[in-house]
Amino acid sequence: MKPLLRRQPPSREPQSAQAVPRSETFGRLMGYVAHYRGALFWVVLAALLNTGLNLAVTYFLGQGINNLVGPRDLDLFRQTALIMLLCGVFGCLALLVQGLLLAKITQRSIYDLRRQLFNHVMTLSLNFFDRRPIGELMSSLSNDTEVIAQFFRTSLNTTLSEATKLVFIVIIMVWLNWQLAIAALTIAPLVLALLSFVSQFSTPAFRQLQGEVAELNGLMEETISGQKVVIAYNRQDESIDSFTEISLAARNAGKRARFIALMTRPVTAILTNLDIALVSLVGGLLAINGRADVGTVAIFLQYTRQLALPITSISNSLDQLLAALSAAERVFNVMDERPAIQNTPASFALPPIQGHVMFKDVNFAYVPNRPVLKHNSFEALPGQKIGLCGPTGAGKSTLINLITRYYDIYSGDILIDGHSIYNVQKDSLRQQIGIVLQEPFLFSDTVMNNLRYARLDATEKDCIEAAKQANAHEFIERLPNGYDTLLAERGSNLSQGQRQLLTIARMMVQNPRLVILDEATSNVDTRTEQHIQEALTRLMAGRTSFVIAHRLSTIRDSDQILVLKSGEIVEQGTHDSLMQQQGLYHELYMSQFKGKLAGVGVGG
Amino acid sequence: MLPNLRRFLAIYRGYEHHFFISQILLGIAALFTLFIPMLSQYLVDEGLIAGDRTAVFRTVLWMVVFAAVSAVFTMANAWYAVGFSEHTAHVVRLYLYKKIQTFSFGNFDRFPTSNLLGMMVSDVNAIKEAVLQVVTSLVQAPVMVLGAIVLVYRSTPSLVWILWIALALMLIALGVFINKMSHLFEVQQGKMDAVNNVLQEDLSGIRVVKAFVQEQYETRRYDRANQEFRKASLKPVQYAALLQPMLYLVVNLGTVAVFWFGGLGNLAGEITAGQIFAFAQYLGTILIPLVTLANILPQVTAAEASAERMFKVMDEITDVQNSAHPQSAHPEVPQGRIVFEQVSFRYPNQSAQSEPVLKDINLTIEPGQTVAFLGATGAGKSTLVNLIPRFYDVTQGRITIDGIDVREMDLEQLHALCGIALQESVLFSGKVRDNLCYGNPDTPEDDMIAAAKAADAHSFVSAIPEGYDAAVARRGTNFSGGQRQRLAIARSLTTKPKILILDDSTSALDMSTEARVQDAIQDLVGSSTTIFVAQRISTVITADRIFLMEAGEIIAAGTHEELLKTNPLYQEICNSQLGGVTA
């Protein structure tokens, strides 16, 4: 049956590096918060209330002072005090509501972002994971989301409060006395101008600091991880000397950069204080000339002092915002990745297979123009054992990636029981293929749960039976809690051989008709090695198996041996027929003796 | 309270004067900031109410002066603070690095590289940040609070009690908050780690997840951890959202109280309007440093944890140390005769009841011999050869070179005697020649090239345009695995060591190259004792003597032919590796 998809080599270029405009990223990021429209409305309302009421306390203080200076009306005095009290209390209540609501919203937004990101990553195909080192992925998924979370948690609340306060103060000032307002507000552009002036010096200083730090970290990483060599060659003293030099350079660069950065505080402070002086001057003269009352001047002085905080905290938030935007860009890049391998609408579920596998003229490359497999064709009958061998890089492991559709081929076809694997749903395909990798991977969970991972509906009996078949049952029983023993990360509290046996057992639970073995080089002691060989033999019995061999002795008894060289199947046949051909296989087989065993008989 | 940080301060000596100066500067700056509300009192009373123009001018002038002075002192403090904190970071880094340079292999087993690196970067930073924060804000709060109290006491003593109560309430609120927060942050961090663990596991095991089609299952697993984290991180934010209004409330209520009682006093003619106004300003002024103090605390807590981790490293005792009176190597030219006498070995972090990794090893290696240790992983081969240069010390028995116990020999000379290529070929950034001559920077050019040729490295190095001056990237990543191995072997040969140890260092080479290198080594340093450690028969086949090891014991020794005839395990290994070999 002809495959329904016409596959083109997928674009291997990483998602286009064209810069997404910051505003777009910002909008998308804020979307997570804006999702909670209802609660946000109340938050903004609370912010307006709280700002208004808290500022009102100052306002009424000023009015109260006017009263004391002027009419000295006792009733008015009592009233003013009462209003101040009410404003103060309710303003703080509003602040409380604002804070609590916003906290809930931001935490949910962060949760949403993380959940979306993870769910999306799970749908992506292997080419996404293979292209990136794990450290980089982790950094993206966990550090970047944390940076965004920090921004949400702290900056949003602060910016909302301070921005509202700023707007209110400006409005009230202008309304009360526009001349004083001008005097008071001259600070704003001055602060911003001076801050940007400072940042002009700080940017190059920080860049240099980053350079020194990178070098320092690089040196540390290199020598500490290679410390055994340093010890073996007695180079500790020189090591310390180089380190001291770089550490001092980093220290000096740090001093310069951090000092400049710290300048923002005294700069803002002196400007604020000078502004207060200015307001005092202008206000004082206006008051003396009768054009402003004492209370108003007092209010202005208070508000001017209160101006400094919003300006500095907003500029601080700006830094956090920029960091969050960079992080968001990376996160969205990941979210915009499309899975390379997808089902089509016409895909159907693969029925339980017998295990007849056919490769028809398969061509494939990971990276365009660097073909890994060329014109591969072969046929495997159900239950046959197919051995694959050849020099490193010949393409043997790639076969696994193709049969399971972790990667899609360029041209040709792969059929199982006559169905092209490109017409079936990938889940139904993968569930019927079992893989034992070179490096056994286990989860930090109980032994039983690891076994059940193959089939969530497997019973305990099924798992134990599988373990027995895989020669794993004895050592499991000897573990501290038997099947309920918790495995450490990656199963590291077991030996390599035991881990391998467990993965074989896991595959037995899965009970697939098609099995792929990427043979580990012998890394285990002889007895465990024997157990593994036995288990593997039992595993392969009656199942179509593909064995990638590093030691030719493992595939000697294959029904068919495929010899790969530079991506092509150059020889095909049984061990005997290939030995007679005296071709590549023969050469490989003989080279395992290195020809130094002249006089030692070689088994036919 | 903060035991590790206190200990840390004790060892960090010699810079106290920087610290004191900076705190004095900060205190003065804080005081001058405090005076400005006082000036506004004069402004209102003498200037505005009395209508005195010169009073206004005078007050404004003083404001400008105070503002300038405060700024200057703040900047000076910043300069000292930055110098102090950066220098602290440098001192701490250097201290740690020097300590690490004294480590031997066993110490590294207890402190994996990633931990040490993390410590050098994040923990040092945490301490630096905490120091910076403390130096730039610690003194402010007490100075301002005390200053405010004094000033209020001087002007309106009858109202001082308002300040006391306000202060008390703010401090209580802060105290409760800080108390809760450190616990909550720990919980939050724990949940964060849990989320990251699921993530890490799923990313490294993605092939398994996909192979068993368990994407849904993993999604649910992650979701559970994510929910837990959301709930845990909500609490600290909620507490912060609680703290702010409480503090503002105290300030507001304080302002109302000042207005009420001050107003009554004013109506009675005892308190001026200016004094009321100034008091209200003080309330606002002292709030900020108190809040800053609260913000410092998480950083100080983090620094305390960092200091604790650091001291674990600092307190580590070097496993292998030079003896009190080290002997130099055999007085004449060293021969390279190695003898193991009843050697047993357990790793330093193993319990005394556990199985020793090496059991009762007795062997003699004659000078100039080429021997090999063969066995599966975990048999103890690398462990055994690591004992010769004293990378670890024996638990029982002794090892002698030319009759001298290695523990009596000068450690540096011992290392110089042995040339070693370890299992993992580590190269350093620099030039190829720097790497090859790592054991002795003054190696003559010819010796270096001869070593490179013997290791089959000369050909590919010469093929590079810069040749031996070519750059080696960090960790040698610009060379293939096989090339790195050959460079590492060349490095071990350059010093023409009397004892050459190659620990599985030809594993990336194909068999014919390996054979060539082995022959070339024999030609170059034939008079040296050469020790191969291997899992492949091909590596050991030509050795003068093969020691077959299993489970920490030497179960057989002899030439390849002898062992093939007499030892069943050896036959088995040959069979499985070479396939169908019969004697």
Protein model, in words:
The complex is a heterodimer of chains A (604) and B (583). By secondary structure, chain A is an alpha/beta fold. Chain A has two domains: 23-335, Up-down Bundle (ABC transporter transmembrane region fold), CATH 1.20.1560; 351-432 and 544-594, Rossmann fold. Chain A contains 20 helices and ten strands. Chain A has helices at residues 22-34, 37-69, 74-123, 126-131, 134-176, 178-185, 187-225, 227-232, 236-262, 264-288, 294-335, 396-403, 426-430, 447-452, 460-469, 473-477, 496-510, 526-540, 575-581, 584-591, and strands spanning 357-365, 371-380, 385-389, 411-416, 419-420, 433-436, 514-518, 544-548, 560-565, 568-573. Chain A has a six-stranded mixed sheet with strand order 6-7-8-3-9-10, sandwiched between helices. A four-stranded antiparallel sheet of chain A has the order 2-1-4-5, with helices on one face. In chain A, strand 1 and strand 2 form a beta hairpin. In chain A, helix 2 (37-69) packs antiparallel against helix 11 (294-335), helix 7 (187-225) packs antiparallel against helix 10 and helix 15 packs across helix 17. The longest helix of chain A is centred in the N-terminal third of the chain and has 50 residues, at 74-123. Chain A starts with 21 loop residues before the first helix and ends in a 13-residue tail after the last helix. The relative contact order of chain A is 0.09. Chain B is α/β, with parallel strands linked by helices and 583 residues long. Chain B has two domains: 3-314, Up-down Bundle (ABC transporter transmembrane region fold), CATH 1.20.1560; 338-578, P-loop containing nucleotide triphosphate hydrolases (Rossmann fold, 3-Layer(aba) Sandwich). Chain B has helices at residues 3-11, 16-49, 53-101, 105-110, 113-137, 140-155, 160-204, 206-211, 215-267, 273-314, 381-387, 411-417, 432-436, 445-454, 458-463, 481-494, 511-524, 537-540, 560-566, 568-578, and strands spanning 338-345, 358-365, 370-374, 396-401, 404-405, 418-421, 430-431, 471-472, 499-503, 529-534, 545-550, 553-558. In chain B, the strands form three sheets. Chain B has a six-stranded mixed sheet with strand order 6-9-10-3-11-12, sandwiched between helices. The longest helix of chain B is centred in the middle third of the chain and has 53 residues, at 215-267. Chain B is elongated, with a radius of gyration of 36 Å. At the A-B interface, helix 2, helix 3, helix 5, helix 7 and helix 8 of A face helix 2, helix 3, helix 5, helix 7 and helix 8 of B.
